[in-house]
Design a protein that fits this description.
1351 residues, alpha+beta, 7-stranded mixed β-sheet, elongated, Serine threonine protein kinase, monoatomic ion channel activity, TRPV, transmembrane helix, transferase
Length: 1351
Amino acid sequence: MKSVDSSEQTQPLLQGQQQDQLAINNSQSKGILPKELNWIMENYKEVDYTPVESRIHEIPFAFHQCDQLLQQIIVPHKNMLLIEYVVENGERERWFKNSNGNSKMVHQLFNGIDYIFYQETISKDTCIYLTKLEDLEFKQEKSLAQFKLDKVQALQNALITDEFDIYFVYGINRVLFRCDQNIFTLTNQNSQKFYEVQILSEKDYNTQIAETPNKLFVPNDAQSYHQLYGHYSLNQSSLQNHYVLRHKQKTYIVDKKSLDKTQVIDKNYHAIRYLDVYEYLMDDDFNLYKYDVNTNQLQNVKQLYSGRSISYLYKMEISPSKLIFFFRTEDDLKVFLAFETMKFELVNEIQKVIQEELDTLLIDTVNNRFYFRESDGENIRFINFNTYYQESHNLEPVVYQNKKVFREKYEFIDNHYLLLRTNQDLFTRTSKQITSSKYDVGNYFIQNPDIFYDENFAEIVKQRCPADVSETVDAINSEDIILRVHRDFIYLNGNKKVDWPEFRERSDIQFKKRDKFCPMVNRFNEKQYVLDLAADHKIVYFDKKTQEFKTIDIAEDEEIPLSPQHAYLDEELGVIVIKTLLQVKIYSLVDNQRIKDITDALPYSSIFVRDNYIQVHSNLVSYVLFFKDKKVVKLLQIQQKEVASNFENLGFYQEDINSKSYQMIKRKNIYNSEIYIMAQNSFVEMFNEQLLTQPVFPALQFNLAQKIVVGPSQVQLFVNGEDNMVGYFDIAITDTLIVDYRQILKKNNEQIVKELQSNPDRYFKYVSGFGTCFSLFQNNLIALETIAKQLSLKDKSSLPILICQRMLGKETPLDISLKNKQQKILNLILSMIIKYQDHFVFNQLVDNQLCELIKQQIDLQEYFDSNLPSYQILDPSFPNQHPDDEDDPMVSIEYLLINLPTSLTKNPRELMQVLSESDCPEYFENQIIQSIIKLKWDSYTKSFYQHRFYIFLIFMAFFVLDIFHSAYFSNSQPDSTESEASHKGETKTEIETKTEHLIPYIWVQISTKVVCSIVLLYFLSYEVKQMIVQKASYFSDAWNYFDFLHIIAYILFCVQDFADETSNNLILLKIIVIALTFMKLFFFIRIYDGFSFLVQMMGGVFKDIKYFISFFLIIICLFGMIFLVLFRAQPIDEYKGVDQIAYFLMAFRVSSGDFQLDDYSGQEGLLVLVSWIIWILAVFTLNIVFMNFIIAVISESYERVMQKLVAESYKVKANMIVEKEQLISTNDLTDINLFPNFIVVRRPLSNDSNEAGEWQGFIKDIKYTIRTAVAKSKGEIIQNLHQSLEKINSSIQQSQKKSISDDSIENKLQKIKDQLDSKVDSLDTKVVELKNDMNFIRSSIAQILQNQNQQ
């Protein structure tokens, strides 16, 4: 046997796998939470439960010094592992000489001391020894007791039941030793107890027990031991001074003193005794009973657990806070259950982890760990079965000198000192005697806690109240340390004190109260200030560092505490906290108002100040207030565990900031009850990675949830201004549930669907790493459709949050489906969010992916119509009646908050970019998109383009002047050159006179071109910037080609104009420049709504008729070639100069109704007839058919553009916004005025038609009516289904009450299931029918509109 200490392990045995560093990359954690909460992600880690190692931790144990490992015993409080093994030393030997290899070494902790039972066989003598753990290496030399047995069997178990009784399980025999003295107090070898035991056979036992039928044990009076033969199981817990034993489905109640049988019950029962609070019997079905030993009556209390029964109970442990069972079921499943001891709530359940080949080592109730190992493995494994909530609510009795402390000895508690008849430090467990008056010395001790460790403690307490020898000084200096307040004095270090009422008179402040002052600490817990409640609405405090008095005037409607005990001032957070015995009030230093996010009735409270939060902790509730810019931005409310109804509070204390706080409680209606301590957790302990749940992480998934209530099974989300809960996470999980989440992913679809139909609620719970059912089956369409059907049958308000991140900062199911482009799953998840999480808090799920949704052309109409992206502001500060001007009548106003912070700010350019690239006009018909575009347009885009437009008008004015001047002046200028003039005989003077007339024209020509060139140079620089920013995408916009061609054409025009102004090429260049100039004009006039529609309509028309025009030109070519052949390419005077295409032009003229018939008469013979036939066909085809076709196509295109008038207008603006935003600097992108997180829309409630036109408004009304009708029909169908379900459930309950046979119930349930399936299918059918009806109505409306336009 070897004792292995933690120093021999690469990792501590009981501490588990310690993290050398936090497994979080701080850079990756940035941006997951708001800046004020980033410290959580930087310092703490959310556990991912998807790997098995997240819950089942391994302690590497490679012990290679043996051939066979026989036994391992964990001693957790000593961080020790005991090993019994076999080594090869010539012959096989054990450390304990034992011929029976099945014998066990047994460890038991009794009264704080570790004891070991072990068996040795030397020669023919078999002995069992009892020794202390620290004396084990000395073996028999220091053993407390020796039990010599006359038969060789195996020691299976041993139990110390009390100071005098020891119980052995020896083979098939049970031996109870009853000592005449307390053997655990023996200190030397000579006082060792020795017993010689004669093991009874079955025959001898039956013979002797028959003589005493009221006995179960056969006594041996000479040796004071009692024997029992058979596989009896003794409960570790006694019941009202009775032993409880089980054998062959019978329970025996045996009196501990006389060992007489008092009751035999024909059923297995297990005794449960919790401290001195309650005693119960429990059957194998987990039913609890109160048992009266006097009347032998059983009274049913409740059932702890349903679904599984105990076939064999391996272990049962009862700790101050846990009731634990480890058992085997009838189907050979190993189950671990942990319950809370006061209310019997299930803490954890572990199934499908412990298999047959695994060996259980220990249930550690101190560290809440369940240790086990593989029989063929080298690792010891453990599971921490506790949750964050139960970890902080352990109920422990107060023990002094190994005895419970009762109410009559309790006086009071302060800080971490409990004043009894002696004073005991509850943490160091040290105590000192106080013989003087408990009130005088006790109060003095509370004021002077340091005397507890004073060497002269005994001399100090001899006096009833030691004399105050402190020196009174006049001032409090900056280097003084404020110790405490007593009566009118403030005590300082150096044995000094200050008379505070006299000291404060130095200020000019008028004090109306005398004794309302106390020390006040800063955020570093240093006593820097003295707080004084000077008047009913005035707070004064003295800062010793600055030597100044400062005042805070509290609002008149606020009350200040009457008797402050402690106060805290934090200038960074901008708060002052005042604490009394039963109240805590927090005042803002910004507006001097009380922060009303928390109730002020908080008895027994403690206050923590750290980072950017303040925690106010009481025995009822704990508040954590997170601050940003001296304002509360988030409130975390942690529900504390209620003391059971049969307990009451005595006191409350806390050792240090951010440490556990403790309640002193006793039983009600019993004055001299024992005293218990109940621990409660602080905020930071909720991040413990060893515990089963970490509720803060899911609580922080939605940034807009301003108030979060954390309870034992739920995390509830609230927002300011709303009383109703927004939603909640179901965090009531167990290790069994985690295993089920892992295993269901390995099943096929048929098994998954069956499981979801039978128990869907099980997969609604949030498990870190898995998320909920939607994250669990995020790639399984069949499973998600099954979940959707099950959700439709449930009450919406009772459902938890189902679509969320699987872990804080990880992807949501919506993100995954978008990444994988799974359209059906994407639409289903989006519809589930809209239907079951229709609140602006949850818009974060969609907002993060809005741009990608638009890219994939997802229908977002229902999303934009929901409450997710917008929120109607109902607040008194936003009046709903307001005139536009002073003289105007009152107008009804509504305010909407557009809730798209990520889309608007994370990548500010992306939203407009994807909208401009989208071919779905429905996006631009939405009020939210329109409001965003309008804001961006009015803020910076419209002014930008107007500025450029005004500059372009300068170019256009000078260019038009140049064109007109050159055109008209060229007609009046001399048409002869100087050589020609001299040839005509003109004199030099006449020539110079004519040249002088040309000078003004030249200057006009030069000046206009200089101005135009400067303007175009400005536009050229802009185009170059665009090209640099947009790169290849620059060439995808047709307007950019026009811009560049315009600049190039004008340059060529200028060159040609100065080179040869009479050239025909100049005329062509002028025409091109004029055309491109007006194209640029069309581009700019789009900034005005009236022109924008027309420009867009023209572009839309040409886009719609492009294929028709192509086909029309083909027909023109057809008839043109026919005419060319028919008339033998004879020249036509009207087409002189274009003879090659003359007949094609003639065919085009035929299409326009301009007929040329003169040449038909010149044809010969049959050609005349053919010519007229061709002419008739051409007129019919080109003029009658095609011209009417083109009119119809253009009319249809016009109608379509008119229907999408507003959408097209906003799309034009979006395109222009994109161009502008690409040129905005990176610094300007962070400007909150240009790119705000939220947008508030103020609009009048009016029934007037908007700029969309009468028909567009009519169409929208029809669409809205259709959607409303469909939604109403769906609601009615679902409501009918719910009513049917309620009737079915009531009929099931009635059937159960009437005790109908199981077969008939199953048949009825199957029929009910079939009915439900058929109703769900009919619902799907009706929905499809409604969609078909909607499509039919849409097509009908379009036809009506078309007919109307034609009229």
